[in-house]
Design a protein that fits this description.
The protein has helices spanning 4-9, 11-20, 27-63, 69-101, 139-146, 151-158, 167-187, 201-206, 231-235, 293-310, 357-362, 387-397, 409-412; strands spanning 121-126, 149-150, 164-165, 191-192, 198-199, 225-226, 242-244, 250-259, 278-288, 315-319, 331-339, 344-353, 365-367, 375-376, 378-386, 405-406, 420-421. It is of the alpha+beta class and 425 residues long.
């Protein structure tokens, strides 16, 4: 969310940023509302000043034996007009705030223009996709043949876009999550957090999920929202606070269930585990000084890449174009893992630098050493990784012709040394 004063200073730069995302100019509408609000505030100040002067004059006129009736009538009329203008000012201020809250972040200069994923730029490929002497199957074919991945029973329990994992596949999912958490907390220094899964509306607003994306979220009847990612809880750990300068950067990780309505996903990935209403993800969040956020973005992306590299999975790194980035992002790298069953790369992680966009919505600041004033922090978030999609990648890339699946070396210690997953019997 932007300070209207910054838009006032350079409206063309903001319009250019939104145009890069494929959006219409918005600065004029914002500044028009801002001008109306300021005009109302100026008029209110003048009326309140006159009301105070007239109120004081009433006492003097009465003390001198004069007729105070005209002044009393004027004060009454001024009160009515002030009340009306205050209502108008609140309405315009609310409209201005709603308009600002609905405007996405401005892309970084090196983010390519473009409307959708077709304009994304591939930066590098790591690893070689495995070669098979048989036709590789997709994950749901493998999992169902093993008898450990059940979409039918999940549908009876909860409906479409849910799955029941059992036996070795449930264990494998747990192993992946533990492996990721151990790597991020032990090797990369992220602080492990067990955060709430239900949050207040203000929390969802702070990360930019509300009000624009309410249809993509699940919410309760008493005002709570289920997190679509632990980013929402972790980033808000610094909401309404002034972080000590020497505490930065802060780095958090968490493994949580995530809940998404997938309101716009009709007809997309209807089979399998690619797009679920409930899934598990290991999240990475960093809180930094402004001058350090670009370097932190590269570091965070490297931490997510390390998971894929240690699992021996081929992947590529994509720089997202402006139109494909998330609402709060200033710059985003996507990691796309090779899925042999699909014969293509699919997203498994997004790592975004949001600069001060979320911090302004959350009022998250820090005070630089030796300074009296405060500045907004920069926030970053990334998947490190989505557990379900990593499970998919392991199944499709480590499958054998007999339907069994080899367990990657990095996970065997989490699987009691088990080297292979095969159907019972």
């Amino acid at each position: 969310m932007f300070d209207v004063r910054s838009i006032r200073l350079d409206p063309d730069a903001f319009d250019a940023g939104w145009a890069k995302r494929g959006l219409a100019p918005a600065a004029a509408a914002v500044l028009g509302l801002d001008e109306r609000r300021r005009a109302l505030q100026t008029r209110l100040q003048a009326l309140q000043q006159r009301r105070n002067e007239a109120s004081r004059a009433i006492g003097r006129v009465k003390a001198e034996g004069g007729d105070a009736a005209p002044l009393i009538a004027e004060v009454g009329a001024l009160k009515d007009e002030v009340r009306r203008l205050e209502d108008d000012e609140r309405a315009v201020a609310a409209e201005l705030e709603a308009t600002l809250a609905g405007l996405p972040n401005i892309p970084a200069p090196d983010v390519p223009a473009g409307a959708d994923e077709r304009a994304n730029v591939e930066l590098r490929r790591i690893g070689t996709p495995p070669a098979f002497d048989f036709t590789p199957r997709q994950h749901f074919e493998i999992g169902e043949a093993l008898g450990m991945m059940d979409f039918e029973r999940a549908a009876r329990i909860s409906g479409a876009r849910f799955v029941v994992l059992s036996d070795a596949l449930a264990r494998l999912a747990r192993a992946l999550a533990q492996f990721m958490l151990d790597l991020h907390s032990g090797t990369f220094g992220y602080r492990e957090i067990d955060p709430p899964l239900l949050v207040r509306e203000r929390t969802a607003f702070g990360t930019g999920n509300l009000p624009k994306f309410a249809d993509d979220l699940f919410h309760t009847t008493d005002g709570y929202w289920l997190i679509p990612t632990a980013e929402m809880s972790l980033t808000n750990l610094v909401a309404e606070t002034i972080v000590a300068d020497d505490a930065l950067p802060l780095r958090y990780t968490a493994c949580t269930p995530c809940f998404r309505a997938e309101a716009g996903a009709a007809g997309k990935d209807t089979r399998g585990m690619i797009r679920q209403h409930q899934f598990t993800k290991v999240e990475l969040v960093s809180i930094t000084r402004p001058e350090e956020s670009e370097a932190e973005h590269e570091r965070m992306t490297g931490c997510a890449e390390a998971v894929l590299e240690r699992l021996g999975l081929a992947y590529r790194v994509m720089l997202l174009c402006a139109g494909d980035m998330g609402f709060a992002a200033r710059k985003t790298y996507d990691l796309e893992v090779w899925l042999s069953g699909q014969g293509t790369y699919r997203e498994i992680s997004s790592c975004s630098n949001c600069a001060d966009f979320q911090a302004r919505r959350m009022n998250a600041r820090f005070r630089p050493a030796g300074e009296r004033g405060t500045h907004f922090v920069h926030t970053l978030n990334g998947s490190g990784l989505a557990v379900g999609r990593t499970l998919i990648a392991v199944l499709e890339n480590y499958q054998d012709a007999d339907g069994s699946v080899r367990v990657p070396d990095a996970l065997r210690g989490y699987m009691d040394g088990r080297e292979r997953i095969a159907a019972p019997g």
